[in-house]
Specification:
Two copies of one chain form a homodimer. Chain A has 135 residues and is of the alpha+beta class. Chain A contains three helices and six strands; from the N terminus they run βααββββαβ. Chains A and B meet through strand 1, strand 2, strand 3, strand 4 and strand 5 of A and strand 1, strand 2, strand 3, strand 4 and strand 5 of B.
């Protein structure tokens, strides 16, 4: 199967936005486990698992552990990208799940990561990128 | 200087949001030059230059050219990340500029990329991540 940006609608898009090129979830995870947020090996494993369960194909990755604390991770996907930045001192992580095409479910990745980091509160803002009415 | 997530305010934050952990620009570039959007070497060069001029430090990168067209690029930054997904067939690019700390100016990166891809229209939505009132 040729690799390509798939321009069709994301799974969770409403009827009016079905043909947006991309669907992006801006995810805030609050009251997470501090140790998990600071463990770059754990963070990497969870992001890869979230991509896999969401149906995405990973084509590149970068993970980095900061001193004194914090982790940054990005996965490049055939269907766009998945990123995380953690602030263990605030028990907080900012996650972006950017997908295109109808083969990936970003909400699946959201639920997995919320559970993985033991977030007591999670929220996601869904943004449609490249909406047909403004292209 | 030790590398760290800097939790202080982003340059362009208003007084009320100064202590948000991160500042994210969701950038839409419309009516860009098709050939430039499809040239992965050019895209990489411009993202690296945007990061440099904005004052960011690159700690990792992934760039990929799709068939039949389209480019995905991500830069991991000491100050978060910079990503781009291009749809040359729509003359459109979706760019994310996620920064933390007060040493990086995301708007500088926005202006550089808008000019580089010869976008006739550009817009940016500024989102403050990890706002102190919800941490």
């Amino acid at each position: 199967m040729p690799e390509t940006h798939n321009s069709s609608h994301p799974i969770s898009a409403s009827t009016s936005t079905r043909s947006a090129l991309g669907c992006q979830l801006l995810v805030d995870l609050h009251c997470c486990d501090r140790a998990l947020l600071n463990d770059v090996t754990f963070v990497r494993k969870q992001l890869l698992e979230a991509a896999r369960q969401a149906g995405a194909t990973v084509i590149g990755e970068t993970f980095h552990s900061f001193s004194p604390c914090g982790v940054t991770g990005t996965l490049s996907l055939q269907e766009s990208h998945l990123s995380i930045h953690t602030w263990p001192e605030h028990q907080y992580a900012a996650v972006d799940i950017f997908t295109c095409g109808d083969s990936v479910d970003p909400w699946c990745a959201y639920e997995l990561l919320k559970a993985a980091f033991e977030a007591e509160r999670g929220s996601a803002m869904e943004i449609h990128r490249g909406r047909p009415d403004v292209l």
